Amino acid sequence: MVEPQQDHISVEASSLPPVPIQEISEDRALTETVLFPTPKLFLKISKLEIRQSLRALTYESVFAALFYSIIGGALLSNFLLELGAGPVEIGLLAAIPQIVNLLQPLGAYLVNRSTSFRWYFMCIFTPSRLLWLILLPAIWLVNSSDITGHQVVQLTLAILLVANIIEAFGRAPWLGWSAVLVPQQLRGRYFGFRNSILGLTNLVTVPLLGLAVSAWPGGTLQGYGAVLVIGIILGIISIASQFWMADVNPQLLKVADSDTSQPQPQGIDFSLFKDANFLKFVLYLSIWCFAVNISAPFFNLYMLDNLDIDISVVTIYHALGTGANMLMLLLWGKLADRIGNRPLLLLVGVLVAVTPLLWLAVGSDQISFWIWLPLLHVLAGGTWAAIDLCTNNLMMGIAPLRYQSNYFAIAGAVAGITGAMGISLGSFLATLPGVAGLLGLFVLSGLLRMAALVFLAFVQEPRSVPVSQLMRVLFPIRQSPNLIEVEE
To answer: Is-contact 231 66, C-beta < 8 A?
Structure first.
């Protein structure tokens, strides 16, 4: 193909045929897919702006990932356990971000009334990240015995709740902005590359942060406070990176009928519930999120509490999973562009469903410590790379451009409430006497994950390879000349 020379091209998005990724260059993909028209207006973004935006989006994601790894995951779980938190508090730690996803439709409504994605996110992420400054004096006071550890646990959960309520208004719009900036033909490769960079960053930094917390001279609580300061600074740098991303007016992406004399819908258009394919995807996503969140918050608890493994070792396990995630993302991204996201989700989903069952073989022996647990984290990291990448890309693929914020918001809200239900059930099972409570919910999670994949099989994705033809695409077999002659 000959690359157009002009910086901007006005071309109907619907007129672009699905082109195999191997047949287009990156520049060609950029020029053909960065224009998103309404009936009367075309949004024009130059190739240079797209390249700069993708670079800035990568930097933004790296700093944000470091921030969230500090105010969540194993580091925060260990911090709460040191303060005396139990399974219920650890369950709330995972449930809060899920429950507040019910507010995502309101975020889609608000962004559709704004005129700038960039300034909308500035107003969302700046206060939500600065809120964590409140926890710093509390950490100092608990070390001086002025307040109790239980009070700090409550304060931490309160900060987590308020921060996530604010951020819930930005989750669906953020996917909408990303969908505009990342050309469709490059989504698999770009997000695979970006997520591999995030994996490399976490692989190097998270274990170092865990070691810093564990070896801090003033104790692990003060160590977490010092790391939290670093996290807040990184979170603000992440927000500043958005200034190098091409700003887009959400009004240009709003729903518009061919007859412009008709009143335009405002806020959430619930007619999307007539989209049968979208409803199938939401059904799959809701069961999947319920199944995953039954067990997800409690793997760290099982290692830190039941197996009594040090936080520094747990972060090393997570680093191994992150390394596998990083290495596999590039493969998954290219494969998703080739065969589609749904077939890949079905194939890898089986391995993800089996993973919780493999935890039944984990114990406190040396084999589990040195071999079994590292292998489980490597398996989880490599397979979840495909799940995270393909789920978002599949949702972007089945959602019409002009409705994307609404689609993302509804899917996020449904996933949030079902995920919270899963965490609630998991918290109850985790409180049952003995280790059987945790191992029982691991088994239940694995079986439900397998059931969710049945519903995914009915979801249709444009440009994806049918499952019946998947093996022939992945492993092409050349026909012999004699066979061809016979067939002729």
So the answer is: yes
Residue closest to 362 by CA, chosen among 379, 349, 345: 379
Where b means 16+ CB within 10 Å and e means fewer, 197-232 reads bbbbbbbebbbebbbbbbebeeebbbbbbbbbeebb
What angle (nearest 5°) sits at the alpha carbon of residue 387, between those of residues 129 and 236? Answer: 15
Confidence of residue 254 (pLDDT cuts 50, 70, 90): low
State the Cα–Cα distance between residues 420 and 187, nearest whole angstrom.
29
Amino acid letter, 461: E
Is residue 428 within 8 A of residue 100, CB to CB? The reply is no
User: Which overall architecture, per CATH, does domain 44-253+274-460 show?
Assistant: Up-down Bundle (1.20)
Percentage with pLDDT > 70 across the chain: 81
Q: Residue 265 in 3-state DSSP?
A: coil
| Contacts of residue 82, Cβ cutoff 8 Å, sequence gap at least 6 | 149, 220, 221
The span from the CA of 96 to the CA of 153, in Å, is: 14
Going 155 to 157 to 160 to 164, the CA torsion angle's sign is negative
User: How long, in residues, is the chain?
Assistant: 488
Long-range contacts from 145-153, C-beta under 8 angstroms, 24+ separation: 149/82, 149/83, 149/84, 150/83, 150/84, 152/83, 153/80, 153/83, 153/84, 153/85, 153/89
Provide φ and ψ at 38, rounded to 5°: -100, 170
What are the φ and ψ backbone dihedral angles of 427, each rounded to 5 degrees?
A: -65, -40
What average pLDDT does range 344-349 have in this prediction? 93
- Six-digit token pair at 161? 């709740």
Q: Return the residue matching tokens 């393909």.
A: 390
Position of tokens 């799940």?
387
Cα(85)–Cα(267) distance, integer angstroms? 41
Structure tokens at 430: 């985790």
Beta bridge partners of residue 38, listed in sequence order: 41
Model pTM? 0.66
Angle subtended at Cα 50 by Cα 49 and Cα 56, rounded to the nearest 5 degrees: 90
The rounded distance, in Å, linking the Cα atoms of 453 and 448 is: 9
Query: DSSP letters along 381-438, please?
Result: HHHHHHHHHHHHHHHHHHS-GGGHHHHHHHHHHHHHHHHHHHHHHHHHHHTSSSTHHH
Q: Fill in the DSSP letter of residue 16.
A: S
Q: Which residue matches tokens 């709003």?
A: 254
Q: Which amino acid is at 259?
A: D
Greater pLDDT, 97 or 124: 124
Average pLDDT over residues 36-41: 38
Question: CA angle, corner 148, sides to 144 and 154, nearest 5?
Answer: 130
What is the rounded distance in angstroms from the CA atom of residue 228 to the CA atom of residue 222?
10
Contact 57, 248 (CB under 8 A): no
